[in-house]
Amino acid sequence: METTPPEGESRSVKVLIIGSGPAGLSAALYAARADLAPVVLSGMDLGGQVSQTHIIENYPGFPEGISGSGLVEAFQKQAERFGAEIVFDMAIEADFSRRPFRVKTHGGEFLAEAVVIATGATPRKLGVPGEEEMIGRGVSYCATCDGHFFKGMDVVVVGGGDSALEEGLFLTRYAASVTIIHRRDSLRAGAILQKRALEHPKIKFIWDTVVTEIRGKDVVEGVRLKNVRTGEESTLKTSGVFIFIGHTPNTQLFEGQLEMDARGYLIADSKMRTSIPGVYVAGEAADPVFRQVITSAGMGAAAAMQVTHFLEENE
Ligand SMILES: Cc1cc2nc3c(=O)[nH]c(=O)nc-3n(C[C@H](O)[C@H](O)[C@H](O)COP(=O)(O)OP(=O)(O)OC[C@H]3O[C@@H](n4cnc5c(N)ncnc54)[C@H](O)[C@@H]3O)c2cc1C
């Protein structure tokens, strides 16, 4: 099996896929089945965000749910079965000014006829004690994914934008109560969402307040709060902490080369094409809206199908 090219050498490939989350591994499956022998750069996190997920219950085909690591393993095996190669390295520089595109990694350099960017996004963290340890034990960044586990429980939502209110409203389907903790005294979310949240009988707000610690032994039991105006500290009992303070797309590497919006999401058309012909994008690197395994995987498949057409027309 070939791996990253030795230092100073370049390795030519037809398709380079940057990222090994659901988007990257699905693109790899489709590109491999089109006989393009794709190479996938895994990045630091083989499997992407899914690998941090205890259980996935909304990916079709697994009626009992499947562990995040189990799903990643299945994605990887299926892509490899048809000839995809996963290289444990990350892209550190890209030059898309001409074909073949050059992508430098820690280990060497790839020259690719086409590229699929599937570098995903990272949910912004609060950065408070207890947060990391409690991910999957009550701390979540996705209500659609985890809301179901909090039936009849009291949960808090951190944030004041559209996502925080949308996800907070979604959580009212399951939770006994949803307390939205916002560091300001007014919301950034759209007017209709605000009205719905403010009027909802299960939703309460705590204003001008930040979470300073997430507490619990094995699972979340409470949060420590601080009022930013008065400095007053308090503790609130809760079983879940849903954090919606934004996502950061992992696209810094492509700044100045590919069109992106103000938040750094790559701009793609309905065929997953970026602003440079031959460079495609899939998954959360271009998707601030849906952010699911199924949608990211779907975008990966679509990007690889387009790559196949592109190479047929341009080889
Ligand atoms: C805790 C948690 C629970 C979730 N639960 C669910 C759920 O139950 N159901 C659901 O549908 N969705 C869930 N999601 C969301 C889902 O995981 C994401 O929507 C999905 O993983 C996005 O896929 P992606 O391939 O676009 O990106 P990611 O999963 O973010 O993967 C990005 C990949 O790019 C790689 N990468 C980044 N930079 C580089 C680089 N420079 N070079 C090479 N590689 C790079 C990373 O190593 C990673 O492999 C959850 C997310 C989290 C965080």
Topology of helices and strands:
Blueprint (H helix, E strand, L loop, with lengths): L9 E9 L3 H12 L5 E3 L13 E2 L9 E2 H14 L3 E3 L3 E5 L5 E5 L3 E9 L3 E3 L15 E2 L2 H4 L7 E5 L3 H10 L5 E5 L9 H9 L3 E4 L2 E7 L6 E6 L5 E5 L2 E4 L3 E3 L29 E3 L11 H22 L1
Parallel strand pairs: 1-2, 1-8, 2-5, 8-19, 10-17, 11-12, 11-17, 12-13
Antiparallel strand pairs: 3-4, 6-7, 7-8, 9-18, 14-15, 15-16
Helix pairs in contact: 1-2, 1-6, 4-5
The chain binds flavin-adenine dinucleotide (FAD).
Flavin-adenine dinucleotide binds next to helix 1, strand 9 and helix 6.
Terminal Cα span: 25 Å
Hey, roughly how much beta strand do the residues contain?
Answer: 25-35%
| Count of separate DSSP helical elements | 6
- What is the average per-residue confidence, as pLDDT, rounded to a whole number? 94
Task: Please give a structural write-up.
With 315 residues, the protein is α/β, with parallel strands linked by helices. Helices cover 23% and strands 27% of the residues. The chain folds into two domains: 10-123 and 247-314, FAD/NAD(P)-binding domain (3-Layer(bba) Sandwich); 139-243, FAD/NAD(P)-binding domain. It is built from six helices and 19 strands. Strand 7 (101-105) and strand 8 form a beta hairpin. The longest helix has 22 residues, at 293-314. The radius of gyration is 21 Å and the shape is elongated. The protein binds flavin-adenine dinucleotide. Residues 18-24, 41-45, 48-50, 52-53, 56, 58, 90-91, 118-121, 123, 135, 141-142, 145, 250, 253, 283-284, 291-294, 296 line the site of flavin-adenine dinucleotide (FAD).
